[in-house]
Amino acid sequence: MNHHASDIHVLAAAYALNSLDPGEREEFAAHLASCEACRHDVADFQATAARLAAATAQAPAAAMKQRTMADIDHVRQLPPHVPAGAPAAQAAPAVFRGVLRRKALPVALAASLAAAASFAGLAAWQHQENLRLEQRARQSEQRLDAVSTVLAAPDARTVHGRAGNGALTTVVASDRQNRAVFTAAGLPAPAAGKTYQLWLAHDGAMRPAGFIHRDGSVLIDGDTADADAVGLTLEPAGGSAQPTTNPLLLLPLAT
User: pTM for this structure?
Assistant: First the structure.
């Protein structure tokens, strides 16, 4: 089947899943030689299909090999190939093969439909995965922009401290922006079921201010312009409304 140059690109997924007929496959293979975009699409589809296959693969039952070997003796062999012009007695197997071909058509059609359905599901899954990755990228970019804005603020002030577990910490705060950034280095991994939680002290009251899970920088949640200090505790996973452990850090904010 011939395809116009403008729509041959849509065959990338079908090519990757080996669902093109020989003519289409040959035509698209020739197209791949000069189309970098299609080569990239084919590689993406093949990698995605491999991931899906690995995720759903199951090890065969231990007795499957024994059953298969035992059943081989009961499987009928295909008839030998009969060349054109052979006697009628020898041509009978050819007629039998024709019957087999006709019976195989519905099976082939069903297989094609199943492949099309699988591809549709694969395409939908890949679309959702791309949307999720794009959303995560946008969120990461927004957080990075917010952190950079605080660090570059003209009124930014910086204080340093060392937590009770040895981690080096820094808080950069901007009253004008009412924001602050908490940075940790050498933060030990919390025990299973635990997490590091940040706090803002306001007139002696501790208010939840977000989490930090590993070394790096995070934007502190809440109003920081009138906060007295930044605290750090080890809390149950999911966080607490009030500190449940002694502070690892209570860092006064410079004025």
Answer: 0.49
Full residue range of the structural domain in which residue 190 is found = 157-252
Q: Using CA atoms, how far apart are residues 61 and 71, in angstroms rounded to an integer? A: 16
Q: Which residue type occupies 22?
A: P
Phi, psi of 25 (to 5 degrees): -65, -40
Q: What is the pLDDT of residues 119-172, one digit of tens each?
A: 566 667 666 777 777 777 776 677 777 777 887 788 888 899 999 999 999 898
Angle between the 88-151 and 36-56 helix axes, to the nearest 10 degrees?
100
Residue 246: partners with Cβ closer than 8 Å, 6 or more residues away: 164, 233
How many domains does one find in the chain?
Answer: 1
Domain-located, residue 208: yes
Secondary element (H or E) of residue 230: strand 229-236
Look at residue 46 and tell me if it is in a domain. no
Residue 197 sits in a domain of what CATH number? Answer: 2.60.40
How far is it, in rounded angstroms, from Cα 114 to Cα 107? 10
Residue 100 lies in a domain: no
Angstrom distance (rounded) from CA 212 to CA 230: 13
Neighbours of 210 (CB within 10 A): 16
